[in-house]
Design a protein that fits this description.
6 strands, mainly alpha, two-stranded antiparallel sheet
């Protein structure tokens, strides 16, 4: 298992080493001292910038996925309310199918918001191993990693920032003595630098997550389970860094601090330009656009159902029922009273005469002219 882990991280360690040494050579060419700690610290910052530029498309997908997840929460709550209390397999399967159908219809992927963090994790472990093996490479106990030769590794391992080596941790510091890597407890100065870096890293992580929740989430979305989970992570992640940061090298703490600061700036720009619907950032954007005379178009999710709830449908007027058969329905003539002139010339109402019933053959009578002609004869 460990050898497979090494096999997976080996190419990433090579890339990390090339980027660090490459930026170090660029800064040295610009006139910075090659053995100075801030030269190597700026090399780590350059490594972060390159990685975050590569991850910009995934960051954009992450922001869009979070916005879609916020907008479909009302539909998600309807599905959860529909199957609330039902634990039979058929109901659970139907709930899963409706949830997946909602994701597919709206083009939402709940795992897209985790992609940047998941892709940064292997790079984090690769940098962790490069800094942890720096002294062993300098002592010749481990092979070189790309351009990170023993001489370059010895120079990087001896470089300090605020008097603390970049490869030192809160617990111990590794130095090279007679081509041997010697580990000793860290000095008070190293511990102070580590504590300051851990506090800055945790504070920047908390600020970045709080900025994303408070400014880019509508008030209606703060009460759903997804928002509550994010709020819980907002407090748990910095605490995790506080307890785990004592095992990280100062170079790793610098890497995460730079990553958090980059995320804060990137989120500030994204939230300002394309905020989530109904959030405070969208209201501020709408006010800015109205002030400048521009039209504000709200973000919508294609495929999101906008039909009213069943309770609302029952209050609507009932449509007139139509015959189900295919025969044409004959129109009915309404009875109305006719007006005929009376003796004084005024019209008056009269009833329509009822039809005469036939009781037998009727003899045809002659006209008045025929009867006159017979009398003359």
């Amino acid at each position: 298992m460990y050898s497979m882990f090494d096999t997976v991280l080996a190419p990433l360690e090579w890339v990390v080493a090339w980027l660090m040494v490459g930026f170090h050579e660029i800064f040295t060419w610009m006139g910075l001292p090659p053995e100075a700690g801030y030269t190597w610290a700026m090399s780590i910052v350059g490594l972060v910038i390159v990685i975050r530029i590569i991850l910009i498309p995934l960051f954009v997908k992450q922001i869009h996925s979070q916005r879609r997840m916020q907008l479909i929460q009302p539909e998600m709550q309807k599905i959860q309310k529909k199957y609330k209390g039902k634990t039979d397999p058929e109901s659970r399967q139907a709930m899963t199918q409706e949830t997946m159908g909602l994701y597919k219809r709206t083009g939402t992927n709940p795992f897209s918001s985790c992609l940047p963090l998941l892709l940064q994790s292997p790079i984090f472990f690769a940098l962790f191993r490069v800094l942890a093996n720096m002294a062993a490479i300098a002592a010749g106990k481990k092979p070189a990693i790309g351009p990170l030769t023993p001489d370059v590794a010895a120079q990087a391992n001896a470089s300090t920032i605020f008097g603390a080596p970049l490869s030192a941790t809160f617990q111990h510091t590794t130095t090279i003595v007679n081509n041997l890597a010697v580990s000793a407890p860290s000095s008070t100065n190293v511990k102070i630098v580590c504590v300051v870096m851990i506090v800055l890293m945790s504070a920047s992580q908390f600020t970045s997550m709080r900025q994303l929740m408070m400014k880019n989430m509508p008030a209606s979305a703060l009460d759903n389970p997804f928002a509550k989970q994010q709020k819980m992570m907002m407090y748990l992640m910095p605490l995790m860094f506080v307890f785990s940061g004592v095992t990280f090298a100062i170079g790793i703490l610098l890497y995460w601090l730079t990553t958090n600061l980059w995320s804060m700036g990137q989120q500030f720009y994204t939230i300002r330009r394309t905020p989530a619907p109904g959030s405070l950032a969208e209201k501020a954007l709408e006010a800015r656009r109205l002030k400048s005379g521009k039209e504000h178009k709200k973000f919508t999710v294609p495929g999101l159902s906008q039909d009213p709830e069943p309770e609302d449908v029952q209050d609507s007027p009932v449509a007139e029922t139509k015959p189900k058969s295919g025969q044409r329905q004959q129109p009915r003539r309404k009875k109305r009273a006719k007006t005929v002139p009376q003796g004084d010339g005024e019209p008056g109402p009269t009833k329509r005469p009822s039809p005469v019933k036939k009781t037998g053959p009727v003899k045809k009578l002659g006209t008045q002219q025929e009867a006159t002609a017979d009398g003359d004869a």
